[in-house]
Amino acid sequence: MMTNIQSVLSYRFTAPEKLFFDASVWLPIFASHHYSPDSVGLYSNFYKVCLDAKCEIYIDTLIMSEFINTYARTEFNHAGGTLRYKNFKLYRASGEFTPIADAIAAACREMLKHSIRIGSGFETVNAKTLLDDYATGKFDFNDQMYVEICKANNLKLVTHDGDFKDSGLFILTANQTLLSSV
User: Which long-range contacts (C-beta less than 8 Å, at least 24 apart) are formed by 10-13?
Assistant: First the structure.
């Protein structure tokens, strides 16, 4: 199956569609202060269009976890990382992290308000194949699971991650490298 890659700028919905936003899209929308204004604008506008079009936006625990951890670690690095704190867990336990944790939780609540929770389907995937592929060093395990989730549920993937180029999925993106690969 060929990967179909379309731009978030020009894509026109034909009906309410089923979309799976990955963390590379949620982060510029809800942690915008760490992303380029172009990415923030493109994905925030696309998100609004999706909501206006009454698209079904799906989310699973892997996406939520990746969003939370990436956001928190980005803040840790921005706060001086290991130069100021012995490790990430000490930063997370500090008073400095409390407002960050609150902002992350608020972002997650907003994501959940406009999303449909879905299971990863881990119990039905061929874990041996995923792990064998992962062991080659060419695949990210979470990305492999996202592909399986999208295929099993007929979801279009909204991503900025170039690793999905050969996934066989329908992809919506603003990633110019991905778009030029078609």
Answer: 11/172, 13/49, 13/50, 13/53, 13/55
Structure tokens, 114:
């406009």
Rounded CA separation 22/34 (Å): 17
Is 51 strand, coil or helix?
Answer: helix
Task: Tell me the pTM.
Answer: 0.92
Predicted confidence at residue 81, as pLDDT, reads: 80
Q: Which two tokens stand for residue 29?
A: 């929308």
Q: Which residues of the chain have pLDDT under 50?
A: none
Domain ranges of the chain: 4-180
Q: Which amino acid is at 108?
A: C
Position 1 scores a pLDDT of 61
Q: Has domain 4-180 been given CATH number 3.40.50.1010? A: yes
Q: For residues 182 and 168, what is the distance between their CA atoms, to the nearest angstrom?
A: 12
Task: Give the model's pLDDT for residue 35.
Answer: 85
Are 96 and 81 spatial neighbours (Cβ–Cβ below 8 Å)?
Answer: no
What the block records as the tokens of 137 is 């060093």
Distant-in-sequence, close-in-space partners of 174: CB < 8 Å, separation ≥ 6: 7, 8, 9, 38, 39, 42, 43, 46, 160
